[in-house]
Amino acid sequence: MERKVFDRVRAQRWYLRFPRAAPVGIFLLVSAITALSVYAIEQVETQRAEAQDRQMAMGVVSAVERMASANVAYLKAGSALLSVRQDITHQNFREFAAQVDNDQSLRGGAGLGWARFVRTAEIPALERTMRAAGDPAFEVRPKPMSDRALVITFVEQSGQHRAAGLGFDLLSDPVRGAAVKRALATGQPVATGSLALLSDPGGARSGFNMYAPVYDSISGRREPRGVISRGFNAQSFLAAAVTPEQMHDYGVALFDAEGADRTPMAAIGQQAPANRRILREVALADHRMMLEISPPPGSTLSSLSLLTLMFGMLVAALLLVVARLVTQQAAEDRAALAWFEEQASIRNSLTRELNHRVKNTLANVLSIVALTRRRTDNLDEFVGGLIGRVRALSATHDLLTQSEWGTTPIRAVVGAELAPYAQDADRAVEMRGPNVELAPNDALSLGLAIHELATNASKYGALSAPGGSVEVGWDMITDKLARIEWIERGGPLVTGRLRSGFGTELIEKIVAHELKNPVDLRFEPEGVRCTLIVPVRPPALFQLRGRGED
Prior knowledge:
Elements: H1 2-11, H2 21-83, H3 90-102, E1 109-119, H4 123-132, E2 148-156, H5 174-186, E3 190-191, E4 207-215, E5 224-233, H6 234-241, H7 244-247, E6 251-256, E7 266-268, E8 278-283, E9 288-294, H8 303-375, H9 379-402, E10 408-409, H10 410-422, E11 428-432, E12 437-438, H11 440-459, E13 469-476, E14 481-489, H12 502-515, E15 520-524, E16 527-535
Parallel strand pairs: 11-13
Antiparallel strand pairs: 1-2, 1-5, 3-4, 4-5, 6-7, 6-9, 8-9, 10-12, 13-14, 14-16, 15-16
C-alpha cells in the first residue's frame, strides 16, 4: 500500500518541476487573457466610436445641406416672385427681404441683394436715378469693361446704415462672374467659392455668395433681368447650421472643395489630428464644399476596459498567490513524504541490520558458551567466565548503540574494557594512538580480545600484582589496516604457556577469523605481548543506510 502511495505521488510532478515558474505562468496566462479581453473591448469601443463619428458626420452634413437648401428654396421663391413684377422697386424687394429675415431657418446670411443687368450706355441714368432715390453716393464700380454690367441696386442688410456692395458690378469679379454665368446657364441658384464679402472687402476669404437668376416672365421672351444674391459669412452659416449643443465636443471645419486654398473658411470646436478627421463632401447650391469633422479626443482606455483590466489583474494576482501556496504546500508534502519514505527505508534496513546483528551476537554467545563449557569442569568458573565475556559484549554494544551502529573509536573500545583496572592506583594502564574508527563487527571482536587479555592479565599477568602496567598502543600501518599492540610489564614472571585456554583460543581463532587477520600472541618472560591487525573500512560499507553488510 505504501509503495502505491509513493508511486502515485511521485507521478504527480508536472506542477512541481518548476514551483516558481508554475505560478508565474498562471499569472501570465490570466494577464494575457485579460489583455485580450481589454483588446476586444477596445476594438468594440473603437467600432462604436467610429459608428458614432460616422453618424455625427452624417448629421453635420444633413444640417449644412438643410441650411443651404432652405436658402436655395427662398432664393428660387424670390426669383419667381420678382420675375412676374413689371417693375422691381425697392419697396417690393424689401418686403421679400423681410420675409427672409423673419424665417429662423435662414439664419447665417449676411445680406440679401438685387443686381440688374444694365447696358454701359444706361449706367449714368441708373446712377442719377439711385441718387435721386436717396443714395447720393451711388456709383457703379468698377467701370464696366464690356457693354453690359450686373449692378447691385438694392441690398437689405440689417445692422448697417448704408448697405455695402451697392453699385458693385458682379461681372467684374472673376469668382462672382463665374457663379452668375453658371446660374444663368442652369437656371438654378449657384454658390461661389470662398471669397471676401463686400461688407468686409479687406477681410479674409471667409464667405461665399448664392445667386439665383431672375427672368422676364411677362414678355414671354425669358430674358434674364438680373439675379438675387445672398452673402454668407461662412462662420455664421456653419454656426447656424450646427450648434455647439449638437456637436457634443466634436469639431467641424468648412473648406472650399473646388478652390486651391486649403485654409478653413469656418471652424467650430477643437480640430483633431489629420489622421482622425472625417471628410465629407457637401453640395451648397451646385458648388462643392468639404466638411471636416473632428472626433473628440478619446481616453486611453474606456471605463469598461479599465474595470476589466483591474479585475483581471486582481484575479491574476490572487491566482498567483494561491498557486504559489499550493505548489509550496505540495512541495512540502512531497518532501515530508520523501522523508517518510526514507524513514521507512531506514526502518526496513534497520530491521534487517538488527536481525543480522542479533544473529551475530547470538552466534558469538553460543560459541562462548560452548567453548567455556568445554574448557571448564567447575560450574562457578563457567558462570564467572561466561558472565565476564557477555559483559564485554554488552559494553561494546553500548558503544555501538551510542554511535548508532556507526564507527567506534579504538580508544573507546579499549577504554571500556580496561575501565575496571584504570582506577587502581597500584597498577598502570596506558593507552596511546591516533583517532581510528572501526566498523561495528570489528569493534565487537576487538572488545572480546581486549577483555580476554585484561582478564588474563588480572588473573596471572601484570594486572594481578602491584606495580604492574599494561600499555595498549595502536597506529595505521596502511590506509586500510590498523595495528594494535598489547604489552604487559611488571607482573609475575611468565614461564611459558602451559596449556591453551579458552581466552587464548578465542583470540587466536574467533577474533582472528572475525578480523580476517592472524593474531600474534606471545607469552614472554616479562609479560604477555599481543599484536592485532584490525581492518579500517569506509563507513559506506557498513552504515545502516548503505548497500553493504559489515
